[in-house]
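dude i think i finally got it to work??
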Amino acid sequence: MATLEDHIRAVEEEIQRTQYNKATQHHIGKLKAKLARLKDEKEKRIAKSGGGGPGYAVRKSGHASVGLVGFPSVGKSTLLNAITSAQSEVAAYDFTTLDVIPGLLEYKGAKMQILDMPGIIRGASKGRGRGREVISVARICDLILLMVDVFETNVNVLSEELTSAAIRLNAKPPDVVVKKRNRGGVKVNATVPLTKVTEEMVEDMVREFGHLSADVVIRQDVSEDELVDALAGNRVYAPAVVVLNKIDLVGGNYLRQVEKRLAAWRVVAISAEKKEGLDRLKEEIYRSLKFIRIYLKPQGKEADLKEPLIVKEASTVGMVCDALHRDFRAKLRFANVWGKSATHPGQRVGLEHVLVDEDILTVVVRRG
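look at this
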């Protein structure tokens, strides 16, 4: 009797031997949907049986969590020690870090948890080298730092392992909504022209994923892979930056050649050992997390310009109210804003006003 693994292998082999063209696109799309459904079922079985290993217990702290993902011995622990107060064991041999070591980076008022994870290897997404446990930690991170050194720059291997584990780097969730119904079949409503898939193909892929009746609303020109991601509903989307370490060991020409090979990525070149490039890295981490600083000004008093409130870019006054106190949104009378988002100093605004970096804000709430 065929096992779940046998079914997965058979579908993978059929996809590999089927030449991709207009005539086969529909069939391949259905196969990809079936493969994703089978893999999700496999992951659920592993999780239920406890077969994924003991895992790493990581408690999130600070304003965001940043994961250091890389091959063994690329300098992750050295970097953690250089930019935080943590002490992660460092040695010149593979697999030094056997646990997830957290450290705290404070920059521009933001507190960012940096997680030094054991090195991953090819096949990590399938469980090699405790890869499942490491990648499960990567899934909770707000930013991924793909760390390589100047002598081993195969970022694509790291990216592929994370992609195989349902982590999408530097991408946004596809604008697709699937609402299951009890009857009536699958109905597709596309608000934009679809050039990469057909509505019939979408219907078949939705059914292949196990939704026999559903309303599907598509608001972007999706590919079959993006549609699979939307149907799975368990993908994690995170920004990623490549950290190129050990630049002190090579000359300028060699370094430029390496950076040219990595042109598809945002790259920060550093030497963790010599503490070179760390200020630029801190700035890139902060920028990638899209933080802004809001200075609070109590009514009738001076603004606190020493300790800003750290919130995400495009935050509204309502979001700041939520961050300050759970009752502030409901009790807000009005707010005053000074800064680039205001049309004039002290502009009176409401909950939907969008704030920008270094705005000064007064929140006035009803008492009682």
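Residues 292-365 form a domain with the Ubiquitin-like (UB roll) fold (CATH 3.10.20.30).
im so relieved honestly
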